[in-house]
Amino acid sequence: MSQCRVRSLPLHSEVEAFCARHKTVIVLEINRDGQLWGIMRRELPNHLVDRVHSVAYSDGMPPRASIYADQIMKTIEEVEA
Question: What is the dihedral of CA 33, 65, 43, 53, to 10 degrees?
Fold first, then answer.
């Protein structure tokens, strides 16, 4: 497991390189709309788009690790199925 923190737009070339190095990329967002995931899907080359998956969640409360961990595991299980 590794991480790439996206801090600004347009996406830096390292974001594309990170996605190319990994089989599955999970975009963890603290909002319900998955805005960064949508931007990445539009800006990345087509051959990388299928690797990028969204875990976007917000219930108005500060983020809780257990909720995000459950969502990440669910997404990984769906990708591997």
Answer: -90
Residues 6+ apart with CB under 8 A from 35: 29
**Phi, psi (deg, nearest 5) at residue 52:** -95, 125
Distance from C-alpha of 29 to C-alpha of 36, rounded to nearest angstrom: 8
Question: For the chain, which residues make up each domain, given as ranges?
Answer: 13-80
Cα separation, 15 vs 80, whole angstroms: 23
* Exposure of 77 in the CB half-sphere (CA atoms within 13 A): 6
Mean pLDDT, each 10-residue run in order, the chain (81 residues): 92 96 94 90 96 90 88 93 80
